[in-house]
Amino acid sequence: MAFELPALKWAANSLEPGISAKTLEFHYGKHHQGYINNLNKLILGTAFENATLEEIIMKAEGGIFNNGAQVWNHSFYWDCIKPGGSVLPEGDFSKAINRDFGSFDVFVEKFSAACAGLFGSGWVWLAKNQNGKLEIIQESNAGNPLRQGKTPLLTCDVWEHAYYLDKQNRRPDYVLDFLKIVDWQTVANRY
Ligand code: MN
Questions:
Q1: What's the 99 CA to ligand 1 centre distance in angstroms?
Q2: Mean pLDDT, residues 36-49 taken together
Q3: Confidence of residue 143 (pLDDT cuts 50, 70, 90)
């Protein structure tokens, strides 16, 4: 079963000015599509030919893991954001943010610092661990907290291809703009 690029839920220019249509053209149209094309070739004739992306993330190694996780991570990333974002809803998730970070502002500060401080390419995650506690996790390359049995709630792609056309080397500026368009309702629903 070949994997396919999922449709975006919003127009490619609707995240501007934070993330441009040009960045979407490359990030979604070339990079995300590229991982899908690579994965579809790599799984042919292997034990992963009919596997789900989650099975690939949990069990595969090397190129199949890297491309499979990148496919999942990007689809998840697009679902974390929407034009204009949404406010953090009151409820269990906001209570958990306060319980585990002290306040939403402290969480934002720590998440931003984790994004700025991740060396090289990777992803910064907010995930729920096996005890229900929220954790900020830095993962290099295609890393995904599912692999550690944790539930991903939010991710920020800090590979240079996510921001270089818009921000060049200014990753913190990209993270600031990313946080303005997070769909907190969707994030809270995952908790
Ligand atoms: Mn990316």
A1: 31
A2: 98
A3: very high
Cα 44 to ligand 1 centroid, rounded to whole Å: 24
Q: What's the 142 CA to ligand 1 centre distance in angstroms?
A: 9
Cα separation, 134 vs 17, in Å, equals 30
- Rounded to the nearest angstrom, the distance between the alpha carbon of 30 and the centre of ligand 1 is 10
pTM (2 decimals)? 0.97
Residue 65 has a pLDDT of: 98
Cβ atoms of 80 and 154 within 8 Å: the answer is yes
d(CA 141, CA 36): 16
Q: 1 pLDDT exceeds 70?
A: no
Token pair recorded at residue 35: 């991982």
Distance from the alpha carbon of residue 90 to the mean position of ligand 1, in angstroms: 30
Q: For each of the domains in the chain, give its residue range(s) and CATH number, in order of start.
A: 21-80 (1.10.287.990), 92-190 (3.55.40.20)
